[in-house]
């Protein structure tokens, strides 16, 4: 299938396209985060590890919000979030407008997350995904471009659809009420 050939391309680091990647996990994602971060370093990328730093129990939203905040501040080009399933991390990170956190399970979903969804955060599960697949997902996620075109319009609608909260306008309304 198509994604096998993409997955076997040289990692971006090997082609001089090194990226700064933010990593974070909870306790359930700690081991996999360490492995995938090491893989990223081996391929020449700069790794910023935002924790957690052990298998001691922590709350995944604390780490997802911190990574999202830093990504939006321009402290990294991509993010990787790992919890037990990747679900909680993706839910929390996607509360930040501008973050597109994709829960992926294989090279195909990681490739589509970039090409179709312009995802900037890769989420994975330490209890659902093995280290080999996780490393392959990262390689694909870093190498695949956003295809734009019709996908651009759809990605824009994620944050502008009817009923989607606009934090900017809520802030303005709050300011008006306080006057
Ligand atoms: C922790 O037990 C687990 O709930 C967490 O890692 C994650 O899977 C939540 O979505």
Write a brief structural summary.
This protein has 8 helices and 5 strands; from the N terminus they run H-E-H-E-H-E-H-E-H-E-H-H-H.
Helices and strands in order:
Elements: H1 2-7, E1 20-25, H2 30-42, E2 46-49, H3 60-72, E3 78-83, H4 87-93, E4 101-103, H5 107-115, E5 121-125, H6 131-143, H7 150-160, H8 167-178
Parallel strand pairs: 1-2, 1-3, 3-5, 4-5
The structure holds D-ribose.
D-ribose (RB5) binds at residues 26, 28, 60, 83-85, 87-88.
The major pleated sheet works out as:
5 strands, parallel
CATH architecture classification = 3-Layer(aba) Sandwich
Mean pLDDT: 90
What is the total number of structural domains? Answer: 1
Q: Report the radius of gyration as a whole number of Å.
A: 17 Å
Secondary-structure element pattern, one letter each: HEHEHEHEHEHHH
Terminal residue distance:
60 Å
**Low-confidence spans:** 1-16
Describe this structure in words.
By secondary structure, the protein is of the alpha/beta class. It has a single domain, classed as Sugar-phosphate isomerase, RpiB/LacA/LacB (Ribose 5-phosphate Isomerase B, Chain: A, 3-Layer(aba) Sandwich). It is 47% helix and 13% strand. It is built from 8 helices and 5 strands. Bound molecules: D-ribose (RB5). D-ribose binds at residues 26, 28, 60, 83-85, 87-88.
Keywords:
5-stranded parallel β-sheet; alpha/beta; Ribose 5-phosphate Isomerase B, Chain: A; single chain; binds D-ribose
């Amino acid at each position: 299938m198509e994604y096998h050939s993409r997955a076997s391309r040289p990692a971006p680091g090997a082609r001089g396209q090194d990226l700064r990647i933010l990593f974070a996990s909870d306790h359930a994602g700690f081991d996999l985060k360490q492995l995938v971060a090491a893989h990223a370093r081996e391929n020449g990328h700069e790794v910023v590890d935002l924790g957690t730093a052990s298998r001691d129990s922590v709350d995944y939203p604390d780490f997802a919000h911190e990574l999202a905040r830093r990504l939006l501040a321009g402290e990294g080009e991509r993010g990787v979030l790992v919890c037990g399933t990747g679900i909680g991390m993706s839910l929390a990170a996607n509360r930040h407008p501008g973050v597109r956190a994709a829960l992926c399970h294989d090279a195909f979903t990681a490739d589509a997350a970039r090409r179709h969804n312009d995802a900037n955060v890769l989420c994975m599960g330490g209890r659902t995904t093995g280290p080999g697949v996780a490393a392959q997902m990262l390689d694909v996620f870093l190498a695949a471009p956003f295809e734009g075109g019709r996908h651009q319009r759809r990605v824009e609608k994620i944050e502008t659809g009817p009923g989607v909260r606009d934090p900017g306008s809520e802030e303005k309304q709050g300011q008006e009420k306080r006057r």
